[in-house]
Specification:
By secondary structure, this protein is of the alpha/beta class. The chain has 15 helices and 22 strands. Strand 4, helix 2 and strand 5 form a beta-alpha-beta unit. The radius of gyration is 23 Å and the shape is globular. Belongs to the methylthiotransferase family. MiaB subfamily.
Length: about 475
């Protein structure tokens, strides 16, 4: 999924303004909040006009070619601003910064500084170097979680829901994915700092947290360091390590009235213990985002996903047996290297079996540096990729509508997050299953948990009537 958020920040000491534009996933938004906090210590605060900026930072995404193309176009637009105001500093942050490194800094010379996801603490120093006439780059990987002690400034904040990062990096090495090369190896955050952040959010009036990681089910705390180095841990560390199931239970107990979500899971890593914890604690949402990528075991092997379609279906059965009314969403890639028509049919057949509540579907785009780029041919014609994607989208839209239709007449517990975009007379919020629910305001307030009777639905939204505050 793609999120685009725009923020402005003032630098009080020298009366300068900083513009931050964020592209990509929820992890990138969380990183932008960390960046804002680190810069606030230097005197930065939010503002809103790009043409008045003295410093522009783009926090970028490399997951798909389209994201990189959009960011390149945006940087070219910024060059026109720079021509009018040569003193403006332009910085490239995030995954594209890590992946492209010196290309845009030294070869194309369209940015002044390049900073990778593990190097944001160095931003004030790097900005000073640019001011002294020196271009700056810092894309070093870390073996530790660098930002556990940072209290993020919530950007685009509704004051109700917040992201809490629990892991960084990924060890899974899927053949299509650049994340291990842009964010490094897996390392987990100290559980005490996670609990502290969640409790602070609750005390500030937040009602829901979303625990974030490239693969949250790989959370593994034994005192610090990368997961792959656990063999070097002490006997005590080995005896007392925490898994994701352990962490999820700790968070549920520490903030018992706060809703808890998490993303993203990997079918290879999610455990039965996690499912049982979700089922046991009413404040953990009954929703799992479980990327499929392909319904073909042959294609999954080419993707290095480390599970078969049969094991995926078995996991779906287990989820539905253990967790009552659990919503499930997916990621699916259309037209991966070597995908035959039969593989595509298998994906559609698996979708028909699972009947996902919703999903995120994309055409495959080859990423430089991945195993797929080095050893597989991007041999599916673009027109076939587009046709397969349309078939996947059509089927998912049908299933999503049917899932929402099944909720008619039922009573849902909805957390009010804000006003409906279509009418100020209505609230919108989400239920435990992550479905959007819209209903008349009446006397309810933002942040209330409200019992709502579902009357009808659109293709993407439940429409109802509030009954009472929970």
């Amino acid at each position: 999924m793609m999120y685009i958020f725009v923020y402005m920040i003032f630098f009080i000491k020298n009366e300068r303004k900083l513009y931050i534009e964020n592209y990509g996933c929820q992890m990138n938004l969380s990183d932008s909040e960390i960046i804002s906090s680190l810069l606030a210590e230097e005197g930065f605060f939010t503002f809103s006009k790009i043409y008045d900026a003295d410093l522009i930072l783009l926090n970028t995404c490399s997951i798909r070619e389209k994201a990189e193309s959009n960011i390149r176009r945006r940087l070219i637009e910024f060059q026109y601003i720079k021509k009018k105001k040569p003193s403006i500093i332009i910085g490239l942050l995030g995954c594209m910064a890590e992946r492209l490194k010196k290309r845009w800094l030294e070869e194309e010379k369209i940015v002044d500084l390049v900073v990778g996801p593990d190097s944001y603490r160095a931003l004030p120093m790097l900005i000073s170097r640019v001011e002294d006439g020196k271009s700056s780059i810092n894309v070093l990987f870390s073996k530790e979680e660098n930002y556990a002690d940072v209290n993020p400034i919530r950007l685009g904040d509704n004051g109700i829901t917040a992201f809490v990062s629990i892991t960084r990096g990924c060890d899974n090495m899927c053949s299509f994915c650049v994340v291990p090369f842009t964010r490094g190896r897996e390392r987990s955050r100290d559980p005490a700092s996670i609990i502290k952040e969640c409790q602070k959010l609750w005390s500030q009036g937040y009602k829901e947290v979303n625990l974030l990681g490239q693969n949250v089910d790989s959370y593994f705390w034994y005192g610090g360091g990368m997961k792959k180095d656990f063999s070097k841990a002490s006997p005590l560390q080995k005896a007392t390590y925490l898994s994701f199931a352990d962490l999820l239970e700790l968070v549920a107990r520490s903030v018992p009235k706060m809703r808890i979500r998490f993303s993203t899971s990997n079918p290879y890593d999610i455990t039965e213990n996690v499912l049982k914890i979700i089922s046991h604690y009413p404040n953990i949402c009954k929703y799992i985002h479980l990327p499929l990528q392909s319904g073909s075991t042959r294609v999954l092997e080419l993707m290095n996903r480390r599970y078969t379609s049969e094991k995926y279906v078995s996991l779906i059965r287990k989820i539905r047996k253990i967790i009552t009314d659990c919503a499930i969403s997916h990621d699916i890639i259309a037209g991966f290297s070597g995908e035959f028509e039969e593989d595509h049919r298998q994906t559609l057949n698996l979708m028909e079996y699972v009947r996902y509540d919703f999903g995120y579907m994309f055409i495959y785009s080859l990423r430089t540096g991945t195993k797929a780029e080095k050893s597989l041919f991007d041999d599916v014609p673009e027109e076939i990729k587009k046709r397969r994607l349309q078939e996947i989208l059509f089927l998912q839209k049908k299933h999503s509508y049917e899932c929402l239709q099944a909720q008619r007449g039922k009573i849902q517990e909805v957390l009010i997050e804000g006003e409906s975009r279509k009418s100020k007379m209505y609230w919108y919020g989400r239920n435990s299953q992550n479905a959007v629910v819209v209903f008349p305001k009446d006397s309810y307030r933002k942040g209330d948990f409200v019992k709502v009777r579902v009357k009808t639905c659109t293709s993407a939204t439940l429409l109802g009537q509030g009954l009472e505050i929970v």
